[in-house]
């Protein structure tokens, strides 16, 4: 099998007519638990996966930036001085948005050399595994290195988030970029999204004889469209009415008062976020004290909360989760922003095939398109290759 890295280096040379100065890569991520808590300044527990985006980069002797990719027919090109969200569109808004966002964070774009970039990705697009954050994080780390900017990883995560928010136009939080930049082998990233303090939490799946199965429903989703922004707006409304800076500042003990003050829909959105923050803390404690077999009910409860209170699941995700649970999964939930994408199931290694067959059968029975299923492991964050 050819290594994607050889491909990227060879295609870079073909495309631009010279050899790259180096290769960088960044992983996609899966979120174990803690959904729609990041922009509420709460807690998340994602991990970087063993599917990576790889880029080759070469330095130019002018101030142009060019980006090419396996998923685009044309090379996008612009002068560094002209970078602004209004000038960016399509897929190249992700990499070029990062260059712009580095400038917003203080990099002097008039003092750095132009670059050529070529990108390929093994992170499935549209599966809710953050193929976008993988691009942003790979570009952020590469430019930080070659432009010698000296930004730390939490700052690079903010850079990626700014690119996504302003250049791409998706009002997302800080989780995905943080996971892609801070990921560690066989461990999750326990992130406090207010302080950006991150702790490494060993997962211990292997030792417990468990595997994490991704069930990509193929139902497409986009966070630059309505549903995600509407949920974020509900959370902000809830926090304003309840007089807190962010929903992070509430605990489950505040929920009775919240129910009195909020309309039913806003209350349920708030209840999801507040209980989900607690589930993240409980999951971290369970992983540390008892190991991964103890987190099943927390995963299941997270799914119910997203289905019933936050209302971001779809029938395909519910079916994947229910079928996994009925066929021996330790726990299962939809993962990511919702409205499509993937579910995860924590599964005994010996039962993975059985669960896959059961899910295939259930999808066929319901007339749903066949999902794509694969096991992921926790991998290291963005790096120079
Ligand atoms: C998407 C967003 F990009 C994240 O910031 C996060 O809000 C997630 O949805 C939901 O937990 O992946």
TrEMBL record:
Binding site for ATP: 69, 126-132
Keyword terms: ATP-binding, Carbohydrate metabolism, Cytoplasm, Galactose metabolism, Kinase, Magnesium, Metal-binding, Nucleotide-binding, Transferase
Ranges where the Galactokinase N-terminal domain occurs: 11-57
UniProt-annotated site: Transition state stabilizer, residues: 29
GO BP: any one term: galactose metabolic process
Pathway of action: Carbohydrate metabolism; galactose metabolism
PROSITE patterns (alphabetical): GALACTOKINASE, GHMP_KINASES_ATP
Active site: 176 (proton acceptor)
Gene Ontology CC terms: cytosol
Occurrences of domain GHMP kinase N-terminal (ranges): 94-184
Pfam families cross-referenced by the UniProt entry: GalKase_gal_bdg, GHMP_kinases_C, GHMP_kinases_N
Binding site for substrate: 35-38, 228
Molecular function per GO: ATP binding; galactokinase activity; magnesium ion binding
Cellular localisation: Cytoplasm
Residues the entry annotates as binding Mg(2+): 132, 164
Stored InterPro entries: Galactokinase (IPR000705), Galactokinase_bac (IPR022963), Galactokinase_CS (IPR019741), GalKase_N (IPR019539), GHMP_kinase_C_dom (IPR013750), GHMP_kinase_C_sf (IPR036554), GHMP_kinase_N_dom (IPR006204), GHMP_knse_ATP-bd_CS (IPR006203)
Residue span, GHMP kinase C-terminal domain: 285-359
Gene3D superfamilies per record: 3.30.230.10, GHMP kinase, C-terminal domain
EC number: 2.7.1.6
Role this protein plays: Catalyzes the transfer of the gamma-phosphate of ATP to D-galactose to form alpha-D-galactose-1-phosphate (Gal-1-P).
Family that this chain belongs to: Belongs to the GHMP kinase family. GalK subfamily.
Name of protein: Galactokinase
Organism: Galbitalea soli
């Amino acid at each position: 099998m050819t290594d994607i890295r050889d491909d990227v280096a060879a295609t870079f040379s073909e495309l631009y007519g010279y050899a790259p100065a180096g290769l960088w890569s960044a992983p996609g991520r899966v979120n174990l638990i803690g959904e729609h808590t990041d922009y509420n300044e709460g807690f998340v527990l994602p991990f970087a996966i063993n599917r990576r985006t790889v880029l080759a980069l070469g330095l130019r002797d002018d101030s142009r930036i060019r980006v090419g990719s396996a998923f685009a027919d044309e090379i996008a090109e612009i002068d560094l001085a002209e970078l602004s969200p209004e000038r960016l569109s399509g897929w190249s808004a992700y990499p070029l948005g990062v260059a712009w966002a580095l400038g917003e964070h203080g990099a002097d774009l008039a003092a750095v050399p132009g670059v050529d970039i070529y990108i390929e990705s093994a992170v499935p697009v549209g599966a809710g595994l953050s193929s976008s954050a993988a691009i942003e994080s790979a570009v952020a780390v590469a430019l930080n290195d070659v432009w010698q900017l000296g930004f730390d990883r939490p700052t690079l995560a903010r850079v990626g988030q700014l690119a996504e928010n302003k250049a791409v136009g998706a009002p997302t939080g800080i989780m995905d970029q943080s996971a892609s930049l801070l990921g560690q082998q066989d461990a999750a990233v326990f992130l406090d999204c207010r302080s950006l303090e991150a702790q490494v939490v060993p997962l211990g799946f292997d030792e417990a004889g468990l595997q994490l199965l991704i069930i990509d429903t193929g139902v497409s989703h986009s966070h630059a469209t309505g549903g995600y922004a509407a949920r974020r707006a509900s959370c902000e409304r809830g926090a304003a009415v309840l007089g807190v800076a962010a929903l992070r500042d509430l605990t489950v003990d505040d929920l009775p008062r919240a129910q009195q003050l909020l309309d039913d829909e806003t209350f349920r959105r708030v209840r999801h976020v507040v209980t989900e923050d607690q589930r993240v803390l409980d999951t971290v404690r369970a992983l540390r004290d008892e190991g991964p077999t103890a987190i099943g009910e927390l995963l299941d409860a997270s799914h119910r909360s997203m289905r019933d209170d936050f209302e971001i699941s779809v029938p395909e995700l519910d079916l994947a989760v229910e079928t996994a649970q009925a066929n021996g999964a330790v726990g299962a939930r939809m993962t990511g922003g919702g409205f499509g994408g993937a579910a995860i199931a924590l599964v005994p290694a010996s039962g993975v095939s059985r669960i896959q067959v059961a899910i295939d059968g259930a999808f066929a029975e319901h007339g749903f398109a066949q999902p794509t299923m694969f096991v992921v492991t926790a991998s290291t964050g963005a790096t120079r290759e």
